[in-house]
Amino acid sequence: MNFRHYGLGSRKAGEVVEVSLSGSSANVKLMDSLNFSAYKAGRKHRYMGGHATKSPVRLAIPRSGNWHVTVDLGGYQGSVKSSIRVLPGVLPEIKERPLSSVPSLVQGNSDSNPFIPNSEEDLREFDVFISHASEDKDQVVRPLALALQSHGLRVWYDEFELRIGDSLRRKIDRGLAKSKFGIVVLSPSFLGKGWTNYELDGIITRAVTGEQVVLPIWHNITKKEVIEFSPSLADKLARSTASHTVEEISSEISDMITGTR
CA-CA distance, 212 to 206, in Å (whole number)? Predict the structure, then answer.
């Protein structure tokens, strides 16, 4: 199969791919990595786009992840030249979540707020500790934490645990020490944060001693970026939001953890 391939790398939902054609009409397809692999192998695949008779062709990226564009004649006669560029999407409106929407900040006893322990000394243990960058909360981390919780797991997630006046470092240290599994949501935002690196150091230290298991989740990030950040992390079995939904990831993690109890 003869086709022109453009690897877009990690792109954000809402960005627009503009493909310019000169010459014959052509088939223009926008695909995620899974469907691009099927396309190359000549198997059935899903895509955005189709047979283009006018230029330019603009296709919106439906969700964040790794994306590919292909241009081919699909049996039509002639030749075609193509070029591509990615246009930024519309930025979302800035919204601040009210403090009342964060579970651990709601005042009350343990009956009205199950995230606050009865005693001053917190002796709870957790199944998972989620290390992440705040930029990834809305799209991945909060839905993941809630999904894991719905599967019956005990989850240390900052919005469940932190209250105004708490010592952040002390809370994190306690969460790390009391968790059997450390979920690390690796993203471009994660790599540049001080707190995430502090949490990651704690998880890796406990993993080396056998006290904790590291579960990496890749979000909007390439293997090359992970290797440059941490070769040891890149070598670990991981799940990517580009090829798995949050619910699929949470179900797989839940099955694994409950199977070890």
Answer: 5
Burial of 148 (0-12, 13-18, 19+ CB in 10 A): buried
CATH superfamily ID and name for 99-258: Toll/interleukin-1 receptor homology (TIR) domain (3.40.50.10140)
Query: For residue 49, how far is the Cα from the chain centroid?
Result: 25
Exactly one of 93, 96, 135, 199 is catalytic; name it.
199
* CATH fold label, 4-87: Jelly Rolls (2.60.120)
* Cα angle 95-116-251, degrees, rounded to a multiple of 5: 70
First to last CA, the chain: 50
Contact 60, 19 (CB under 8 A): no
Q: Please list, in sequence order, all residues whose beta carbon lies within 8 angstroms of the beta carbon of residue 161, skipping any fewer than 6 positions away.
A: 104, 115, 171, 175
Mean pLDDT score, 65-79:
82
Q: Which of 31-45, 110-124, 148-162, 203-217 shows the lowest mean pLDDT across its residues?
A: 110-124
pLDDT tens track for 166-204: 566 788 888 888 999 999 999 999 987 777 787 888 888
Distance CA 56, CA 53 (A): 9
Catalytic residue check, 135: no
Query: Which of 34, 18, 32, 24 is CA-nearest to residue 2?
Result: 24
| Predicted local confidence at residue 105, as pLDDT | 46
> Among residues 106, 24, 30, which one has the least CA distance to residue 61?
30
